[in-house]
Amino acid sequence: MMTRRLLWVAGVFVSTLVLSQPAGSIQDLDGQPAPKFSLKNTKGNTVSLSDFEGNVVLLDFWATWCGPCTYQLPFLDSLASKYRNRGLVVVGLHVDDRRPPPSEVEEYLLDKRVHYTNLISTWEVDEAFQVYAVPTSFIIDREGTIQRTHVGFDARTAPEKIEAHVREVLGLP
Description:
Number of strands: 7
Helix content: 25-40%
Oligomer: single chain
Shape: globular
Strand content: 15-25%
Strand order of the largest sheet: 2-1-5-4-3-6-7
């Protein structure tokens, strides 16, 4: 009886999430130019997507309160190190531009030993990328076109898929 009730509650929850999404799919952005933006990093300096022109960019929308995001951070940090010399740049975008303050996001990243660039996103940038769940990652090619989109992070399967897609966009076997 308890299992049925839990399944019913889970079904209602998932249905609510699906029905509350806007028309279209986030994957509709694949093959489209990445929306341009300029945002502040955790130290208050302005960084633009165009600063990474000519590189493959893995853009990751995340939040400190997101459990799967926490699991993804070390993976993305290792990916950034592994493919840096091949032209990969990993850029994190913390989705809540009001909570916690940027200084606390920076402390959080230092505590997690994350070394790649992190920015504080805004509602406008989140909307431009159709981010309705975190983590959401985009792999952008050297010409600025979104090639792959990943929503969520399952530690059992996502690292292999994301790395394969990064290698593909970098032109590696």
